[in-house]
From TrEMBL:
Top-rank taxon: Bacteria
Composition skew (Basic and acidic residues), residue ranges: 42-51
Lineage start: Bacteria, Pseudomonadati, Bacteroidota, Sphingobacteriia, Sphingobacteriales
The protein's name in its UniProt record: ABC-type branched-subunit amino acid transport system substrate-binding protein
Annotated region described as Disordered, given as residue ranges: 40-62
Length: 420
């Protein structure tokens, strides 16, 4: 079984506020305390905080039989900021949204494995998203008992946990940050594919699938766009040195979009558009609408485009907008048991953070539990989950997720492109 009380429910309004208030005050937890202690472990004499315990249950059947591994979640619940006397209490509670959703999805994943006979000890800590708090957590002896640490969610505390992981030879997951947070750390696992993996996939798709005579990269001189463009240009040179790739400055928010005209031609035009501005996309689509019917377009967009509001999906389908994703769009509700189970339990559909927690728990929970197999061997197997692709490659910086797929605008959403 998963020995952890079901405390952090995803709720709305006042009910959610009182739940976090219960966690922050009713149980007497501090930011450095272990939020939930599970399994057979004993409470240390010097541990002053009250800790909730549940007895571990041994399974007599099922595919899993071994001692329960210890997993530790380090998440920024920020329970210290819940103030019942503040007029902004519900607003401050929204800062815990990511941690709550991720926890709920992760917990549901472990529960799913428990139903098959697995057993885990789960330790949950509130990092407050503060480096000083994370440093204090690393002094807790029970954290060193972990076989896997998940978190912190944000990159700022990764260096601290990275040093701890090296000293204690414990693997740790960077669950959400799409970048290598700590260099030269063999115990690091980067679960969200870094940008280099996305640009590599995009370049490979262009060279191998679209096969254009040239590629036009549209730049608005935005810093984030520049990171994508720099990585893409490097990957494109490696994929096809003979393919002409031209970067075009179309001005801030497309003020110089007309400069694109001299590069367009009859037949297929492949554009790489890393902009995350809905205003720019509106201007771009309007400009393409004015082009002759003999001009055809395929557009490679930034992986985060689905998060941008007010993108015209009719135009996105018309102009064949593609993007890369290490997750993808959630399956339809009727096709997902996880979707139904989560919505029934928490009253809301799972967010992307909940889905990430669920897939991580399913993948790494299985890897930790499988008898006779080291974690580093188990995670070499690719995994296609509810919302995430995992395909880890060992590098000097640890294990990096290279699981990226190509999506295309179709029927008002982005759906996976079938492989040839």
């Amino acid at each position: 079984m998963t020995s952890v009380p079901n405390l952090l429910q995803r709720l709305n309004g006042n009910s959610r506020f009182f739940l976090c208030l219960f966690l922050a005050a009713g149980l007497g937890f501090s930011s450095c305390s272990r939020k939930v202690f599970t399994g057979k472990g004993r409470q240390k004499e010097k541990e002053k905080e009250e800790v909730k315990e549940e007895p571990e249950v041994e399974k007599d059947k099922g595919p899993f039989k071994r001692e329960a591994p210890v997993l530790s979640l380090l998440l920024p619940f920020r329970l210290d900021q819940v103030d019942p006397g503040s007029a902004n209490s519900l607003e401050s509670l929204r800062k815990s949204e990511v941690a709550l959703d991720f926890y709920q999805g992760f917990r549901m994943g472990l529960d799913s494995l428990s139903a098959m006979g697995a057993s885990f000890k789960l330790q949950v800590y509130d990092t407050r998203d503060e480096n000083t708090t994370i440093s204090r957590l690393t002094m807790k002896p029970e954290l060193a008992e972990s076989e896997l640490i998940v978190g912190p969610v944000f990159p700022s505390g990764m260096n601290i946990i990275g040093r701890f992981a090296q000293n204690h030879q414990v693997y740790f997951i960077s669950p959400l940050a799409p970048r290598i947070a700590v260099e030269d750390n063999a115990y690091q696992i980067v679960a969200t594919a870094p940008m280099e993996m996305h640009t590599n996939k995009a370049a490979g798709f262009i060279a191998g699938r679209l096969r254009p005579s040239s590629v036009l990269v549209l730049s608005t001189a935005n810093a984030e766009e520049s990171k994508y463009i720099g990585s893409f240009m490097k990957q494109m040179r490696e994929k096809s040195s003979s393919l002409q790739v031209t970067e075009i400055d179309v001005g801030s928010f497309g003020s110089n979009i007309s400069s694109l005209k001299e590069y367009l031609h009859e037949g297929q035009n492949v554009l790489v558009v890393p902009s995350l501005s809905s205003t720019f996309w509106k201007i771009l689509f309007s400009y393409l609408d004015m082009q002759p019917g003999s001009y055809q377009f395929s557009i490679i967009a930034h992986p985060e485009l689905p998060e941008v509001e007010n993108i015209d999906m009719v135009k996105a389908e018309k102009y064949q907008v593609y993007l890369t994703s290490s997750g993808g769009m959630p399956p339809k509700a009727e096709s997902s048991g996880f979707y139904h189970a989560y919505e029934q339990k928490y009253g809301l559909p799972p967010s992307a953070y909940a889905a990430k927690g669920f897939d991580l728990a399913m993948y790494f929970g299985t890897a930790l539990w499988n008898q006779g197999q080291e974690l580093t061997e188990a995670i070499k197997e690719p995994y296609s989950g509810y919302h995430n692709e995992f395909d880890f490659s060992q590098t000097p910086d640890g294990y990096i997720n290279r699981g990226v797929k190509v999506l295309k605008a179709h029927n008002y959403e982005f759906s996976e492109v079938e492989q040839e």
